[in-house]
Write a structure and sequence with these properties.
- This protein has 337 residues and is of the alpha/beta class.
- The chain contains 14 helices and six strands.
- Helix 4 (124-139) links the parallel strand 5 (109-112) and strand 6 (145-150).
């Protein structure tokens, strides 16, 4: 299931659970903690008093009261002490403990603030890296949608060198767990049964001369439709030796959306969705362009979104979460669906 980075007020997120960046007492504080307690009302504090506090790196669950969520998951991140006091391990544990608690309570969606990056002094770029790495590893294995909620641009940072490199690239180019194996097995079996002359030739040369002649009728033209986006995507998944679930999770795509694409041969995805699959399949630039064309799109150097994605593909960096960090930093749509 997907990980999304969004700019919002976490107290307004309509999800199953929101995560509170609490202190060990669980009795409220400043920042996100104070905002959540104010929005939830006094009954949240009453329930927290009965929990007996929470250790750093652990998490506890309460009701959400006036908040638009079902639950509040209270977790305690570490205070930054220079990086040599196990801060990364404790911060990773805070995220993972919260996610496991959400899953145990059948939450399908959860929203996190950037833990420890406020008063606890954890460097924001490092805090972001821990958050994305931990959440990304979790959602690849579990069916849960996670939002990393950034309140304002001052709370967000990507590495200065990466930011500068992408900005330079834009300046240079801007103007110029639920796998349905029956689907996979049936289409692979079909491919084995079909004679070679009707199989799609991915590396074929130019079409024969007859194919270049104008059709005699509209019906004839429509009868010569090219391979669709859905067909090419499923073929590429098979060629890569991936299961459907492995592919859509790598693409940061919801299972339900993938099912629509798989079951409708003429489904037209959004451009971020099509690009997400190109990244998940680790396609080189030429094949990424071809997959995009099947959905009716093209890479354009008049689009910051396109240039940023092309920047990463050209460098063979197919980490979709790193790409989304950069897209978020430049106020662009994120890859996925």
């Amino acid at each position: 299931m997907p990980l999304f980075i969004v700019r919002n007020d976490i107290t307004r997120m309509e999800v199953d659970a929101i995560v509170n960046a609490a202190n060990e007492s669980l009795l409220g504080g400043g920042g996100v903690d104070g905002a959540i307690h104010r929005a939830a009302g006094p009954k949240l504090l009453e329930e927290c008093r009965a929990l007996g506090g929470c250790a750093t790196g652990q998490a506890k669950l309460t009701g959400a009261y006036r908040l638009p969520a079902k639950y509040v998951i209270h977790t305690v991140g570490p205070v930054w002490r220079g990086g040599g006091a196990g801060e990364r391990e404790l911060l990773t544990s805070a995220y993972r403990s919260s996610l496991e608690l959400a899953l145990a309570n059948r939450c399908e969606s959860v929203a996190f603030p950037l833990l420890s990056a406020g008063a606890y002094g954890y460097p924001r770029d490092q805090a972001l890296r821990v958050a994305v790495d931990t959440i990304a590893a979790f959602v690849l294995c579990q069916e849960i949608t996670v939002y990393l909620v950034i309140y304002d641009r001052a709370s967000y940072s990507i590495g200065e060198k990466l930011f500068a490199d992408i900005a330079a690239s834009i300046d240079d180019q801007y103007v110029e767990r639920h796998t349905d194996r029956r689907w996979e097995q049936s289409r692979r079996a079909l491919a084995r049964r079909l004679p070679p002359d009707v199989l799609w030739e991915a590396e074929s040369s130019s079409p024969p001369m007859a194919a270049c002649l104008p059709p005699e009728s509209l019906e004839e033209a429509l009868g010569k439709l090219d391979e669709s986006f859905s067909q090419m995507l499923l073929r590429k998944i098979d060629e890569a030796g991936l299961t459907d679930a492995q592919c859509y999770k790598k693409a940061n795509i919801d299972r339900k959306l993938f099912s629509k694409i798989r079951s409708n041969v003429w489904y037209k995805p959004s451009k971020p969705t099509a690009m997400a699959f190109a990244v998940a399949l680790e396609l080189p630039m030429g094949e990424a362009r071809e997959l995009l064309e099947k959905a009716g799109y093209a890479f354009s150097h008049a689009s910051r979104f396109d240039i940023i994605v092309e920047y990463f593909i050209a460098r063979q960096n197919y980490n979709i979460f790193e790409i989304n960090e950069a897209l978020f930093a430049f106020d662009q749509p994120l890859l996925g669906g």
